[in-house]
Design brief:
Number of domains: 1
Largest sheet: 5 strands, mixed
Distance between the termini: 11 Å
Number of strands: 10
Structural class: alpha/beta
Oligomer: single chain
CATH class: Alpha Beta
Order of helices and strands: EEEEHEHEEEHHHHHEHHEHH
CATH superfamily: ATPase, nucleotide binding domain
Bound molecules: zinc ion
Strand content: 15-25%
Length: 256
């Protein structure tokens, strides 16, 4: 069985080490499942598994390296380099939500750090960012700016406001595109991927509006202006499942 889990993970022990967005610390996962099923379990970080699923799909079209960015409740990335998932010795490779995108914002992350990507622009934190943007908004009050100042403008509400052409929603979208672009540019400097795939419910929900301003801002911030192609996730919410399944199938030494 392939299992895609929140992380970071201790791969050797099969434990979930902890996650800033879930009340989980040092939680044994692999052994209880193996005992319950009587079958070996291949455990992988959920975003890494999704990256692997998207990589297997994209591989037919040529990319050797791929970065998958999931913007959901938090923000994470899975990195595939040279046909392998990059885990890191502490299981922290691809913990992209903790990339510093704006230390001057003064916004504290769930991990304790300052100005981290997911503290500013994840699904769970966007309403707080919208409050800050609404307080400095110089344009006329709009339905979206009103909802924002009440702390009620998250990704789904933003998507609806953008459909109606709300000016404050467009302002927030521009800010959001620059924050995400800073994250993508940093990932590009670190891994130089052939392609970046963006998934996660929050980002995909606004993708038709976000894609173009994100691409423009990312091209401005990318090292040497060398931006990688940015694509929305093909498998959507199922990428992690497909990736975990593929990992289980491709681990004969583990699965017997
Ligand atoms: Zn953080």
């Amino acid at each position: 069985m392939g299992v895609a889990s929140i992380g970071p993970l201790d791969y050797a022990e099969g434990w979930v080490r902890g996650a800033p967005n879930a009340p989980v610390r040092e939680f044994p996962l692999r052994r209880p499942i193996e005992e319950a099923l009587g079958a070996p379990v291949v455990l992988e970080n959920d975003v890494n598994a999704a990256a692997w699923g998207e990589y297997l799909l994209a591989r037919r079209r040529g990319p050797r390296s791929l970065v998958f960015v999931a913007v959901g409740t938090g923000i994470g990335a899975g990195v595939v380099v040279g046909g392998r998932i990059l885990r890191g010795p502490r299981g922290l490779a691809g913990e992209a939500g903790h990339i510093v995108v704006d230390p001057w914002s003064g916004v504290r992350c769930g991990c304790g750090g300052l100005g981290h990507w997911e503290a500013l622009a994840s699904g769970s934190r966007l309403p707080q960012a919208a409050v800050r943007l609404a307080s400095s908004w110089r344009g006329p009050e709009t339905p979206a700016s009103r909802e924002a100042s009440r702390g009620r403008l998250g990704y789904p509400e933003l998507a609806r406001a953008l459909q109606g052409g709300d000016p404050f929603a467009r302002h927030l979208l521009g800010w959001l595109a620059r924050v995400h672009a800073a994250g993508l540019a940093t990932l590009t400097a670190a891994y130089d991927p052939d392609v970046i795939v963006v998934g996660g419910g929050a980002a995909l929900g606004v993708w038709e509006h976000l894609a173009e301003p994100l691409d423009r801002a990312y091209r401005e911030l990318a090292p040497y202006g060398r931006a990688a192609p940015v694509k929305p996730a093909t498998y959507g919410r199922l990428a992690g499942l497909y990736g975990a399944l593929a990992l289980a199938l491709s681990a004969p030494e583990t699965c017997g």
